[in-house]
Specification:
Length: about 220
């Protein structure tokens, strides 16, 4: 399996939303998009799939080192090898990749967040780092596009968290702010229930409204 094939299987399997998003992108940019998407997916799986925290931290530290190798064109992992050309071709910076690593570190450290202020740090690191990297790959006319990429990254990540709420809750991760849960009189146990109560439904409706608020920020035009 080539590095690109690995990235495709990791981040954009057939019939997935990522598959179609990449499929309709400019063909010359597709390998870079796949590499960036696969990088985030690979890192996110550390917190999701590795049960022993000490093992997860070792893997995360390995990726901190591997990211440096990718930027030195000495990548050992298929994803870091696939990233080497895009890093040069599109002038991708190291910081957004490092922010994704730190987002995973937050997943290992915290199971919930006191308010959206704290959660927004996580959404910036995990969500907007990805969309801003993809904006760099796709190209843009207006620098303000990166601001829209930021809003889009938050909206997409919050949507994914809402969609996977019970799966994340079962794994001990709660991405609805604690103060909002308390105000709605909803406990962590309530989010694990097979049937949704009216209180939970109202709380989730408020989360969806926040997603809409981020989704409808002014849009910018990408360069083709």
């Amino acid at each position: 399996m080539t590095p690109l094939e690995y990235c495709r299987s990791k981040a954009a399997p057939p019939a997935s939303s990522n598959y179609y998003a990449v499929y309709f992108a400019d063909r010359q940019r597709q390998p870079a998009l796949l590499a960036v998407l696969a990088y985030q997916a690979e890192l996110a799986d550390i917190a999701r799939e590795v049960k022993e925290r000490s093992v997860a931290e070792v893997k995360l530290n390995w990726w901190r080192q591997e990211l440096g190798f990718a930027f030195d064109s000495k990548g050992r992992h298929p994803i870091s090898q696939a990233l080497q050309q895009p890093i040069k071709e599109f002038g991708l910076e190291k910081e957004p990749f490092a922010e994704i690593i730190e987002a995973v570190a937050m997943d290992l450290e915290y199971g919930s967040y006191p308010s959206f202020r704290e959660l927004s740090v996580y959404t910036h690191r995990m969500g907007t780092s990805l969309t801003q990297l993809m904006a760099e790959v796709c190209g843009y006319r207006d620098k303000a596009t990166l601001r829209h990429a930021h809003h889009l990254g938050v909206a997409l990540l919050l949507t994914r968290q809402l969609r996977n709420l019970r799966r994340d809750a079962d794994a001990g991760h709660f991405y609805i702010p604690e103060d909002e849960m308390a105000a709605a009189n909803v406990s962590q146990a309530d989010l694990r229930q097979p049937r949704m109560s009216e209180r939970v439904s109202e709380l989730l409706a408020e989360q969806a409204k926040r997603i809409d608020d981020f989704s409808y920020k002014p849009r910018r035009t990408y360069r083709t």
